[in-house]
Design goal:
The structure holds three protein chains of three kinds. By secondary structure, chain A is mainly α. Chain A contains 16 helices and no strands. In chain A, 69% of the residues lie in helices and 0% in strands. In chain A, helix 12 (353-376) packs parallel to helix 15 (424-451) and helix 15 runs antiparallel to helix 16. Chain A is globular and about 65 Å long. The relative contact order of chain A is 0.11. Helix content of chain B is 77%, strand content 0%. By secondary structure, chain C is of the alpha+beta class. Chain C folds into four domains: 1-42; 43-82 and 95-129; 135-278, Sandwich (Immunoglobulin-like); 287-389, Cytochrome c-like domain (Cytochrome Bc1 Complex, Chain D, domain 2). Chain C contains eleven helices and twelve strands. Chain C is elongated, with a radius of gyration of 33 Å. The chains are: A mainly alpha, B mainly alpha, C alpha+beta. The interface between A and C is large, with 107 and 109 residues.
């Protein structure tokens, strides 16, 4: 399937290999989905570590009450950049990296539909994050209004905000181009016999994510452009004195922002839906139901944005509508959780590292989902909005959710990507350390929020000290544990034992029909799918 | 393989020209914003920003209409 | 395979150790509660308003439903993990869909959600009903302090963080109400329905008192409202709940709830303080003091249109420097400032300042205008003249 005879019409491929640049030029000019996937994944890991350093600085300052190491404005910049880098530099690019590697392999396509645009989609990102990091050094420092950039605070800010706006535009363009690529690839390049309802669920979740991205990234671009013109061109979109409304920024931002969080979780749903059946040696339970549930979540995600704004003073009718809609999203999400557990039920499970992370995902993401439900209840949200309860909630769904699924995906597919097996014992250690330290860090934040500690503060009243100390200790443990993953991946790539084509007994998607490592060009002749 | 035909402009040359025009339009929008922000920052005068935008919009209109009138 | 078995055993051991460690840590920290620091909190602050009570109960109710569902669902999952594993020899079944079960686990959660939504709806409607208040207070958020205006009673004040910098920068031990103390708290009577009108002067802030169950964003240029009825006297502390810049963590809210008679005494004292601070209209000012005061009034009220240099922005905003009105008869000058300018029956941007400025302020600004920039009329307009002209 992947070896191409020289006299085949596609024998060109062999010649092309000879023309491929090596060294750094290979990586800069590559149009190969595997190379680009690798670029995205390494980029996102580096950004994850960078954003993690920002977080550890935050947690060091918050270890005890009082200001010890940073001044309040810089602290606000730290929280802002931590959010922007983790969301736009770590989670989203990692998801795209998985898409680039896996979508063509899983649908039997030779590459993405727009291979050259794919290259640009990636290379825009290092440029954008350079802007973000540069913003720390301009007069006024980096943007410090939170990653949500609410006006009028962000209108007041210095040059760092302009750099951030520019970076957001660039990252948005990258996401939109990537999404166009993914949709076109999935709709047009599937192998014969692979109908939509036969695609692996990971491909479905990425198809839906791509539509969400195309729908909402332009909205974010609009919001930050209005911010830019308010700052420099004398417009008053968000200035009441000129006839505008600061709350309008929030509406526009969160119309992007809520689908954005589903954009960050849907690919992870897909990864978990791949891993659990493989390690249960049983097909995914309720495939059609999973597709409908994911689609419902995507559609509903457009109807809930103002649950981030329950305290702005909207009329009761608005609060009721958004409360009901937000609670409704729990239904399809619950359906997915039940389907995963039903997949495990009466399976024949083994618990290699990918499965550990997938199970950890199901457990902790659901916990995060429940705190989301608590926050959906408007009167309770009035107490918890802008407190550490919210911080706990979104870290449960994004870290123990999205990130753990990505870890699972890395361990699962690494043998296919690099042809070598990672160290299983180290993987298990990585899992347990991450699991334990994650919970030590973020579970106490629920209590802090309930007790009344607001977010985005560099200092706090003394009654919040104990839980903050616990959280800071946990944060360092969690951060250090990630070095295990780095070590495991690097030693695996360099000198891991060779991996078979299908190291996972229960895996059944197309990529496992290829040798490990997957050849540079695959499926140049599409496979036939039954 | 996919067989949706996407050839509205016909041959490769006119497609390339069309792509170049699109790139020019998009980059001139970006340049306008950049120029406007930088000018507004340096001059400090309140009207600069909106003046830049105003001239840009008029400029786009003139170019767009002018091209069609010339044809 | 061996490697995996070893890894799993290691995993099980680690899991046990971790669980014990976590439990020990939590016990230890619970015991730590006996230290000078307040006990570890696990729940919302005890409520002292009816809405606060409803919120507290709602949260407990929802949390227990979530806990029951969570424990139930994951009991099933963990049972499966132990019983349906390959190492126990369990063979995989191959079922992979069941429409009935899908319908069941869609409908049941939906019904559970309805049971949560009903009491929540009632509370939302109660929170939004700000009618028939006993008292109204206007709360304004600034970078980085709050101001409270008792608009029915004619006094107001600014409320700043009282914690000294030496405590914040660890040069002194921290006080009991570190970061939650102010120089002048908002004071309200117990048991009365208080409506708060909330706005801001610069960026978005948020007025939050956890014990009341009230949190309302303060949005510049807009006025929102909320209400509460504090049923227990005491001092209740909250914080700004919307990132507003550098000192967002340093602008707390303190509300002192007093029994009715003590509140009345406090309000009286405040009113007396307000009238004492107000300008005496009969006072005779000397020209330097009056001009200095006039410059302040001019900067705050007039410079936006007539410019700091008095040159205005003709023709919309005429210049005052060298103007016929500002250098001509006092009566005409006072008339323009007091009554504004109406042209052809249409009001212009020059409003009637007698509605916003006191006679002292008008006297000061008129004196300033007549003697600033290139104007050197040399006369002084006293507040008593303004009061007479305003009749």
């Amino acid at each position: 399937m992947s070896s191409i005879p020289h006299d085949h019409a596609g024998g060109h491929a062999h010649d092309e290999h000879a023309h491929h640049p090596g060294g750094i030029m290979r990586w800069i000019t590559t149009t190969n989905h595997k190379d680009i996937g690798t670029l995205y994944l390494w980029f996102s890991f580096i950004m994850f570590l960078a954003g993690g350093c920002l977080a550890l600085t935050i947690r060091t300052e918050l270890f005890e009450p009082g200001l010890q190491i940073v001044d309040p404005e810089f602290f606000n910049s730290l929280t802002t950049l931590h959010g922007l880098i983790m969301i736009f530099g770590a989670i989203m690019p990692a998801a795209v990296g998985f898409a680039n590697w896996q979508v063509p392999l899983m649908i039997g396509a030779p590459d993405m539909a727009f291979a050259r645009m794919n290259n640009w989609s990636f290379w825009l990102l290092p440029f954008a994050v350079t802007l973000l990091f540069t913003s720390f050094f301009v007069p006024g420092g980096a943007a410090a209004g939170g990653w949500t950039l609410y006006a009028p605070l962000s209108v007041q800010a210095g040059m760092g905000m302009d750099l951030t706006i520019f970076a957001i535009h660039i990252m948005g363009a990258s996401s939109i181009m990537g999404s166009i690529n993914i949709i076109t690839t999935i709709l047009n390049l599937r192998a014969p016999g692979m109908t939509m309802m036969k695609m692996p669920l990971f491909v479905w979740t990425w198809l839906i994510t791509a539509y969400l991205l195309i729908a909402v990234m332009p909205v974010l671009a609009g919001a930050v452009t209005m911010l830019l013109t308010d700052r420099h061109f004398g417009t008053s979109f968000f200035n009441a004195a000129g006839g505008g409304d600061p709350v309008m920024f929030q509406h526009i931002f969160w119309f992007f922002g809520h689908p954005e969080v589903y954009i960050m979780i849907l690919p992870s749903f897909g990864i978990v839906s791949t891993i659990i059946p493989a390690f249960s040696r049983k097909p995914l339970f309720g495939y059609a139901s999973m597709v409908y549930a994911t689609s419902s979540i995507a559609i509903l995600s457009f109807l809930v944005w103002a649950h981030h704004m329950f305290t702005v003073g909207m009329p009761a009718a608005g609060q009721l509508f958004f409360m009901y809609m937000t609670m409704l999203i729990a239904v399809p999400t619950g359906v997915k959780v039940f389907n995963w557990i039903a997949t495990m039920w009466k399976g024949s499970m083994t618990f290699e590292t990918p499965m550990l992370f997938a199970i950890g995902f199901v457990f902790l993401f659901t916990l995060g989902g429940f705190t989301g439900l608590v926050l959906a209840i408007t009167p309770v949200d009035i107490q918890l909005q802008d407190t550490y309860y919210v911080v706990a909630h979104f870290h449960y769904v994004l870290v123990a959710g999205s990130l753990f699924a990505f870890f699972g995906g890395i361990y699962y597919w690494l043998p296919k990507w690099c042809g070598r097996m990672y160290n299983e014992a180290m993987g298990v250690w990585h899992f347990w350390l991450s699991m334990i330290f994650f919970n030590i860090t973020f579970f106490p934040m629920h209590f802090l929020g309930l007790a009344g500690m607001p977010r985005r503060v560099p200092d706090y009243a003394t009654q919040f000290t104990d839980w903050n100390m616990v959280a800071s200790i946990g944060a360092f443990g969690f951060g250090l544990s990630q070095l295990l993953l780095l070590y495991n991946v690097v030693t695996c790539i360099r000198s891991g034992p060779p991996a078979p084509a299908k190291p996972w007994e229960g895996a059944d998607t197309l990529e496992w029909t290829l040798p490990s490592p997957a050849p540079y060009h695959t499926f140049e002749t599409p496979p036939h799918v039954h | 393989m996919a067989n949706t035909r996407f050839d509205p402009a016909g041959d490769a040359d006119s497609r390339r020209a069309a792509s170049r025009r699109t790139a020019l339009v998009l980059s001139s929008i970006a340049v306008t914003f950049f120029a406007g922000v930088i000018l507004a920052q340096y001059s400090g005068a309140p009207g600069v920003g909106i003046a830049v935008l105003g001239f840009a919009i008029l400029g786009f209109l003139i170019v767009a209409i002018g091209r069609n009138v010339r044809k | 395979m061996d490697r995996i078995k070893v890894a799993q055993r290691v995993g099980q051991a680690v899991r046990l150790v971790a669980k014990t460690a976590l439990l020990a840590a939590m016990l230890a920290s619970a015991l730590m509660a006996s230290s000078a620091r307040a006990a570890l909190e696990y729940n919302l602050q005890p409520p002292v308003t009816p809405i606060g009570e409803q919120i507290f109960d709602l949260h407990v109710y929802i949390m227990w439903i979530c806990v029951v569902i969570f424990v139930g669902v994951f009991a099933v999952m963990f049972y499966s993990i132990f019983a349906h594993r390959k190492s126990q020899g369990h063979q995989a079944a191959q079922f992979h869909e069941n429409t009935t079960v899908e319908v069941v686990w869609t409908v049941i959660p939906f019904l559970i959600l309805m049971f949560m939504a009903l009491p929540a709806t009632r509370t939302i409607l109660a929170m939004k009903d700000t009618t028939v208040p006993d008292m109204t207070i206007k709360v304004t958020g600034y970078q980085w302090k709050w101001s409270y205006d008792y608009i029915d009673q004619g006094f107001g004040f600014v409320s700043n963080l009282k914690t000294p910098h030496t405590q914040i920068y660890n040069q002194e031990p921290k006080g009991e109400h570190y970061l939650l103390e102010v120089d002048q708290p908002m004071v309200v009577p117990v048991g009365k329905r208080i409506r708060v009108l909330i706005t801001a002067g610069d960026v978005i802030h948020s007025w939050w008192v956890p014990a009341f169950g009230v949190k309302q964003d303060a949005i510049p240029g807009f006025v929102r409202d909320a209400w509460f009825r504090a049923d227990k006297p005491g001092i209740y502390r909250g914080q700004c709940a919307e990132l507003c810049g550098k000192e967002h963590g340093f602008m707390p809210i303190v509300v002192e709830v007093l029994p009715a008679d003590q509140y009345a005494a406090w309000a009286d004292a405040q009113k007396k303080k307000a009238t004492a601070a107000a300008d005496d209209p009969a006072r005779i000012w000397d020209v330097k003091e009056l001009t200095a005061r006039g410059e302040a009034v001019y900067t705050a009220n007039c410079a936006a249109c007539h410019q700091a240099n008095g040159k205005g922005v003709p023709p919309a905003f005429p210049p005052l420097d060298g103007s016929k009105i500002a250098t001509g008869p006092v009566a005409a000058h006072l008339d323009v400032v007091l009554n504004g300018v109406v042209r052809n029956g249409q009001a212009t941007a020059m409003v009637a300042w007698k509605n916003t400025l006191s006679p002292t302020e008008i006297a000061a600004v008129v004196t300033y205008e007549r003697n600033a920039w290139g104007n050197h009329v040399g006369d002084v307009v006293q507040p008593s003249q303004v009061a007479a002209a305003g009749k």
